[in-house]
Amino acid sequence: xxxxxxxxxxxxxxxxxxxxxxxxxxxxxxxxxxxxxxxxxxxxxxxxxxxxxxxxxxxxxxxxxxxxxxxxxxxxxxxxxxxxxxxxxxxxxxxxxxxxxxxxxxxxxxxxxxxxxxxxxxxxxxxxxxxxxxxxxxxxxxxxxxxxxxxxxxxxxxxxxxxxxxxxxxxxxxxxxxxxxxxxxxxxxxxxxxxxxxxxxxxxxxxxxxxxxxxxxxxxxxxxxxxxxxxxxxxxxxxxxxxxxxxxxxxxxxxxxxxxxxxxxxxxxxxxxxxxxxxxxxxxxxxxxxxxxxxxxxxxxxxxxxxxxxxxxxxxxxxxxxxxxxxxxxxxxxxxxxxxxxxxxxxxxxxxxxxxxxxxxxxxxxxxxxxxxxxxxxxxxxxxxxxxxxxxxxxxxxxxxxxxxxxxxxxxxxxxxxxxxxxxxxxxxxxxxxxxxxxxxxxxxxxxxxxxxxxxxxxxxxxxxxxxxxxxxxxxxxxxxxxxxxxxxxxxxxxxxxxxxxxxxxxxxxxxxxxxxxxxxxxxxxxxxxxxxxxxxxxxxxxxxxxxxxxxxxxxxxxxxxxxxxxxxxxxxxxxxxxxxxxxxxxxxxxxxxxxxxxxxxxxxxxxxxxxxxxxxxxxxxxxxxxxxxxxxxxxxxxxxxxxxxxxxxxxxxxxxxxxxxxxxxxxxxxxxxxxxxxxxxxxxxxxxxxxxxxxxxxxxxxxxxxxxxxxxxxxxxx
Length: 719
Known about the structure:
By secondary structure, this protein is α+β, with helices and mostly antiparallel strands. Among the domains are: 10-41 and 441-718, Rossmann fold (3-Layer(aba) Sandwich); 248-339, no CATH class. The chain is built from 16 helices and 36 strands. The strands form eight sheets. Strands 29-30-32-31-33-34-35-36 form an eight-stranded mixed sheet, with helices on both faces. Strands 1-2-3-4 form a four-stranded antiparallel sheet, with no helix packed on it. A four-stranded antiparallel sheet has the order 5-6-7-8, with no helix packed on it. One of its GO terms (molecular function) is serine-type endopeptidase activity. Keywords: Hydrolase, Protease, Serine protease, Signal. This is S9 family peptidase.
């Protein structure tokens, strides 16, 4: 029997003021004809900026541009340079390479960066800006990453990874003979032979807890260590030791000390450790000491300009899933004894993403997700005042601050990625790149109309509507409900990854609706925590009431509605169609459909104990209740399931389980498996496979709710 979940909507529609549209009347049809809509193949045109860094004097700006080579079906990344004093913006590096993480030398004459050019994988290269080709600075077997200049420009800190075997070999006495290994002989010789096979992954011998990477098994531990390169001699040496991970090194302003984060746990295997601590050591690696910040995991330490304080980001280790990432500052007295940290961003109740010290050390700049946008904030250290420096209905994806200059990368509905420059107070903003403005001049890009609505329990939920370019007020349109993953992610005008998909759906005649239901980031800790032990019912009702709101506006053809989402949103899509049949089609992508199986399969398995406070053997009933496969027998909506072969984050058997269950039940279901790719297919997968995914979703919706479905309905009415 058909069923549908209905909710009271009287309060929702009694006052038009509840809907706060941020943009007004759609473009007239006559004007739309001058431009075309977004195509799937426009993926090849989109260029994205990242890794923005200002020169020490704030007059020049380096950044990385990623673009797709359609002939090679590959991504390439190059470094660009902008002269901020009225000069040009130009490309510095070229070729079929992936360059990234540029870092200015203190005198502004050179750029260190990471590149896969050459024959040794990712290494540190140095480019002289006065002229000449980049030269390799490192030649480590396992590559190098994260260059950091010393204040005097004579040294570079960087990171590299080592296997446990390599750590042991580096500690072995020179000249010591390798014991004999054989397939026969003594048991000691046999064991050595077996260990050698396992070392080469033939076979994989698994003894660790975290044995899954993103696409491959990781049976053998790797350790991230800190190295220092002497630029005069060209010699590198490792500053850290042991089977531990060391992250984010930073020189003190005088170059005498290094701050970093590390997981140093002599009595606990690192797979069981979920916290990094803050450390300081001398620049030669000696006198390492931990700076106590109990109850938090620490990352990204940065010295203040005066060298008397360290700022860092931190997350609570007691409630690690929904908790906010906070910005802290700890003072270091002359004897290196630390006082308790001051939590700078806590009054904002939002997760901090990136931060920088102001040049005078009196404030900290940071970004945070807020109501679908990502502004830059400035926090004054003297009085704690926090205010937006770079606001707007957009997202700042990266930024840097030097002298009186602020540089940042922006995504917004009108343009997926451009680089901007402003004064340190946010004034006199100007765009310094033209990555996408050229091709977008001939394309119609739709705005996002924001609205707020009360949900079933009175909480205000934020959503957005995108209309087709040729929108006609006298017509009703098919609708696609897009759901975000996470579960604690946030969508909005400041979200870059969905720019192309949203615009493509709108260009093909769909109303696109997306929301930030309970559990989303950007609305405070309490809002995120609402879905603890309850992933399904509350978020489902939130997104369905958003659909009700569109229907009640009279703009939606109720018989032509579809829903889709990936990862957690794949979960919620499947959960939703198991509880409500208003949608004519659904696409569940890379989702989790059985939480108990997810615990045993995906590399994100810790979400089960973090989000549900149980292990499967402790309370199997709650995992059964919250799993979409439990309600598979109630699904009547035609469902397309998508997954990638090498997705180890959610585990590909999740999709196999749901598909087989629905096929046995003779439900309307199709299944698509993408080769070679992992969980991030839609964002960073092979370009041709990304386009296939987009067009396959479009084709599926067209069959059930788009032009083909409308034509069938018209023929049926004619008969």
